[in-house]
Specification:
By secondary structure, the protein is an all-beta fold. Helices cover 0% and strands 55% of the residues. The protein has no helices and 14 strands. The radius of gyration is 14 Å and the shape is globular. The chain starts with a strand and ends with a strand.
Length: 121
């Protein structure tokens, strides 16, 4: 499945996404600058890496996620590092969160500023 990213309702495609303030970079190329604050980021498909100054919702991340907000994700092939809370299925790497963590199986370590809950399927 091809990766798509929807940011404030606009759709983009690529394998590596960086969102820094209002600048959107995909596969190393600046492709857009939003006029205001990024409200919602949704990733669908296989994504190698996501780096965002916003909160993110992701499905099918084969690499890692770094977010200055919260992360809501399905399975993640790498690690998650979030300033906010993390809610996800399984993570192949580590999970670091400033808030709470609510995940399934995590193969690495979990560090959280809040509570840690493991869901069992």
């Amino acid at each position: 499945m091809a990766m798509t990213v929807r940011i404030n309702g606009k759709t983009y495609a690529g394998s590596s996404v960086s969102i820094n303030g209002s600048t959107i970079t995909i596969d190393g190329k600046v492709i857009d600058r939003t006029d205001g604050v990024i409200v919602r980021v949704i990733i669908e498909g296989n994504l190698d890496h996501l780096d965002s100054t916003a909160s993110v919702e992701a499905r099918g991340v084969t690499g890692s996620i770094t977010a200055d907000g919260s992360v809501s994700a399905a399975d993640v092939g790498g690690s998650i590092d979030a300033v906010g809370s993390v809610s996800c299925f399984n993570v192949d790497g580590n999970v670091t969160a400033g808030g709470s963590v609510n995940c399934g199986k995590v193969k690495g370590c979990v560090e959280a500023g809040g509570s840690v809950t493991q869901r069992r399927w």
